[in-house]
Automatic annotation (TrEMBL):
Source taxonomy: Bacteria, Bacillati, Actinomycetota, Actinomycetes, Kitasatosporales
Database matches in InterPro entries: Amidase_6, TAT_signal
Tagged with keyword Signal: yes
Segments of this protein annotated with the region Disordered: 73-110, 201-223
Database matches in Pfam families: Amidase_6
UniProt keywords, alphabetically: Signal
Key word Signal present: yes
Residue ranges annotated for the Putative amidase domain, each copy included: 235-387
Record's signal peptide: 1-37
Annotated protein name in UniProt: Amidase domain-containing protein
Biased composition (Basic and acidic residues): 96-110
Originating species: Streptomyces galbus
């Protein structure tokens, strides 16, 4: 809107009227703190405050993980977050929420123990990635990196498992300018072993022609099935596992990263890279044709990066065959999951180790290293599982 010229008298009257109105509006818009209380201006977040944000986040996720561990580490008199007070601390509301939700990881620990898996210790570290401050609200992006040590590992059994998980933390400042952590959200697929949230699921996907692609049969999850050893020598399964364990948390720059591109993330892209490292050859063609399979830095077929499309290609091409039980998986084999049992698969993983009859999978979204199939079943007992011999 264009400005208008006013006479000096009218201009002075207008300014005085606006000033009076401003005072009244200012009084009306003051925060509703109790009368006479000291109220600070919107607080700033300096380097020291950011460091305390990070330390509190570290304590918060350590408390969650400790609920999975046997021994003294899980039996502290008070959670680590109880040690924070004053300028930065956990809000009472979030503290109550965490206390009431603690049954989830503890129940998961008991279920794991019944399947023969226990953790003797854990180490959690949090990296602060970014902080955004708007008035009395601070939004903090962090990455949690946790390593769990398997109890009583023997022989060639994996000694540790690990994962990375992204989170968004919300801090709110009270009237004195002190910050309280009020909310924590997962920013990836929610597949960490200590998570309290449900995993992200993909919308149902169907083949273009409706009926030419075989529907993978579900695999049982009972222990000690009849073994099905690998007999083929076409592919280098050790190379598949080595690739996956090299790039589980440091991504190969020769391929795009699909994290943050909706449900599913980078999991199938990562497994396809691992299979390619072990000898799977490209089948060039149209990107939407699920009978083709190829992936480079510049272009990828849907079957290279899509959970269901990969399954269709793998079966149609005869590069895989279904296994009846998840415990029959061997190194280089692939495991998929359908969390909500709607017929559309949600997640893809590759086996990188096996010991004592238990396969250990490595995957992206969340970045995870050598998680046991027993742990997956304990965490998601109602999911559908699909096991592929490669």
């Amino acid at each position: 809107m264009k400005s208008r010229k006013l006479s000096r008298t009218r201009r002075r009257a207008t300014i005085l009227t606006a000033a009076a109105a401003s005072v009244v509006a200012g009084v009306a818009l003051l925060p509703n703190w109790s009368a006479g209380a000291a109220v600070v201006d919107d607080p700033t977040v300096d380097a020291k405050t950011k460091a305390t944000f990070q330390k509190l986040a570290d304590a918060f996720f350590t408390d969650r993980t400790d609920a999975l561990v046997d021994g003294a580490q899980s039996k502290r008199d008070k959670p680590l977050t109880a040690g924070f007070s004053g300028h930065v601390k956990l809000s009472s509301g979030l503290s109550r929420t965490e206390d009431s939700a603690r049954d989830t990881p503890e129940g998961r620990k008991d279920k794991l123990a019944s399947l023969g898996e226990e953790y003797s210790k854990a180490n959690t570290a949090v990296t602060l990635n970014a902080t955004r401050v708007e008035g009395r609200r601070a939004t903090v992006a962090v990455t949690e990196t946790t390593t769990l040590t398997y109890a009583q590992a023997r022989g060639n059994e994996p000694r540790t498992t690990g994962f990375q998980a992204g989170h968004e933390l919300t801090f709110k400042a009270d009237r004195h300018g002190n910050w309280q952590l009020t909310d924590v959200k997962d920013t990836d697929s929610g597949l960490a072993v200590n998570t309290l949230s449900k995993p992200a699921v993909k919308a149902p996907t169907t083949a273009d022609d409706g009926d030419t692609m075989p529907n993978a049969p579900r695999a049982a999850t009972t222990r000690n099935p009849v073994a099905v050893p690998k007999t083929g020598t076409t592919y280098d399964y050790k190379a598949m596992a080595a690739y996956a364990e090299k790039y589980w948390n440091v991504y190969n720059k020769d391929y795009p990263d699909f994290n943050g591109h909706g449900a599913g993330g980078d999991c199938t892209n990562f497994v396809s890279q691992s299979l390619k490292a072990g000898g799977w050859k490209h089948v060039p063609g149209y990107v939407y044709d699920y009978t083709k399979w190829f992936g480079t830095a510049d272009i990828q077929s849907d079957s290279f990066v899509g959970v269901n499309e990969w399954s269709w290609f793998a079966q149609n091409s005869k590069r895989t065959k279904p296994l009846a039980n998840v415990y029959q998986l061997e190194v280089g084999d692939v495991l998929q999951m359908d969390f909500d049992r709607d017929g559309s698969k949600d997640h893809t993983m590759i086996v990188t180790a096996k010991s004592g009859g238990v396969p250990y999978v490595t995957y992206h979204s969340n970045n995870t290293f050598r998680r046991s199939v027993a742990s997956l079943i304990a965490s998601y007992p109602t999911a559908y599982y699909y096991a592929y011999r490669t």
